[in-house]
From TrEMBL:
It is found in: Membrane. The keyword Metal-binding does not apply. Keywords: Membrane, Transmembrane, Transmembrane helix. PANTHER family: PLASTIDIC GLUCOSE TRANSPORTER 4. It is a multi-pass membrane protein. GO terms for cellular component: membrane. The keyword Acetylation does not apply. It comes from Actinomyces johnsonii F0510. The chain crosses the membrane at residues 18-39, 45-63, 75-93, 99-119, 131-153, 159-178, 240-266, 272-294, 306-326, 332-354, 375-394, 400-420. This is Transporter, major facilitator family protein. GO terms for molecular function: carbohydrate:proton symporter activity. Its main location: membrane.
Length: 426
């Protein structure tokens, strides 16, 4: 398998693409629901954000053993049911049940971050266009739909969680339409069922060839080992792990998801009307369309896109500071625009490019350990940045957040520029 399929690579089957898009919209819808909750509660939203962040980290830890024992499909069904139940609790009740519901939603989202890459990889054929970049590209669209649907509702927070519940049900339908992972079936000594799953999805001829690759993947999966300190003494492994840490920094340091989640709160703090929310949410959807067009046509130059995204994030953070200095309506709108630029730097450039970027640099028997560490580390970094950003807003004010975003984006860009140019040739 080549690390970068050619530009003429065929697309995955429609059912599999719909699954990937449903995952992206689901993950984005959770961010949108958080954004509405934060805008309504401000400092009171800290428990909500903390619970969701912690649950997502826990979900990434629990997702791997669940998918190994239950299978990818049944694990996906469990995550969908958890998310739908959590959305129902958060939308229909108040107080502690809201936190429980949000925790269930976060747990499902964390598990999905682990299960979705397995499903997309194990149900695709060699040479198909990669689906996880499309998953990450669709996040802002899910958040935008939630914001547009909930902001003008008389009960914003319940409406936001209701839309998130709808996204969970869409994901549930997409999971039901897919077969079980043939790689998992082969690992359970159910080769005939694995071939039938491939045949249902790709046809008899393609399945006849793919079953051999599936057996190879299952054998490699059985040989996976944990990443140990001894492995880090190997220069290749140490270099790949360091690059992975830099990629997480590039994703989360320039506010990351916080630029989207805090956007409605920033708009309310600036005194702008609902028109600013509509502009922001519509722009998020537009960024998704641009990101999809990019990731479905260009799969090479991943590290170059990360570098470009880091530079664009610095530009957006600079506009934040300039808008704060200007003041007035012009400054307020510049701040709103700068937040959309920060969202674009992540959703269009950085997040899609980071998916699987260092897999070819990891020894085959450590790939699963690396993916698990990346998922957990990314969720932990995202939760930390979001909680820290909200704490800064509550206790120090918006101007301090703008300066912090500028400093973090600058540090991120410097680290990326120091580390990744040596990778651009790959």
């Amino acid at each position: 398998m080549t690390p970068h399929p050619p530009r003429s690579a065929p697309p995955a089957p429609v059912r599999l693409r719909l699954y990937a898009w449903a995952v992206g919209l689901f993950l984005g819808a959770l961010e949108g629901a958080l954004a509405i909750g934060v805008a309504g509660a401000r400092g009171g939203a800290l428990p909500l954000v903390g619970v969701v962040g912690a649950a997502m980290v826990l979900g990434t830890v629990a997702g791997r053993p669940l998918s190994r024992h239950l299978g990818r499909r049944r694990t996906g069904l469990v995550m969908a049911v958890l998310a739908a139940a959590g959305a129902g609790l958060a939308a229909g009740l108040e107080g502690i049940p809201v936190l429980i519901g949000a925790g269930l939603a976060g747990l499902a989202s964390g598990g999905m971050l682990v299960v979705a890459p397995l499903v997309c990889h194990e149900l695709s054929l060699r040479g198909h266009k990669r689906l996880m970049p499309q998953v990450m590209a669709l996040g802002p669209a899910g958040a935008g739909v939630v914001a547009l649907a909930a902001w003008w509702s008389p009960a914003r927070v319940p409406a936001a969680w209701g839309v998130f519940g709808g996204a969970a049900l869409i994901y549930l339908v997409c999971v039901l339409r897919l077969p079980e992972s043939p790689v998992w079936l082969v690992g359970q000594c159910r080769d005939v069922e694995a071939f039938e799953a491939l045949r249902r999805l790709h046809g008899t001829l393609e399945a006849s060839v793919a079953i051999d690759w599936t057996r190879l993947d299952a054998e490699m999966l059985a040989e996976q080992q944990a990443l140990t300190p001894a492995d880090l003494r190997v220069p290749q492994v140490r270099s790949a792990v360091l690059t992975g840490a830099v990629l997480i920094l590039a994703q989360e340091a320039p506010l990351g998801a916080a630029a989207l989640v805090l956007a409605p709160l920033v708009v309310a703090d600036l005194g702008l009307g609902s028109g600013a929310i509509a502009v922001s949410a519509t722009t998020w959807v537009g960024w998704t369309l641009l990101a999809l067009a990019l990731v479905t046509r260009v799969e090479r130059l991943r590290f170059l896109r990360v570098v470009l995204g880091a530079v664009v994030a610095v530009l957006g953070a600079t506009f934040l500071v300039v808008g704060m200095s200007l003041g007035g309506a012009a400054g307020a709108w510049m701040i709103v625009i700068s937040l959309t630029i920060l969202v674009a730097s992540q959703s269009v450039l950085v997040l899609p490019a980071c998916q699987g970027a260092i897999d070819p640099r990891i020894p085959p028997w450590l790939v699963e350990a690396q993916r698990r560490a990346s998922a957990t580390g990314g969720a932990l970094a995202r939760a930390g940045v979001l909680i820290a950003a909200l704490l800064v807003v509550v206790h120090l004010g918006m101007p301090v957040l703008y300066w912090a975003a500028f400093a973090l984006s600058l540090v991120s860009a410097v680290v990326v520029l120091l580390r990744l140019p040596r990778e651009l040739k790959v």
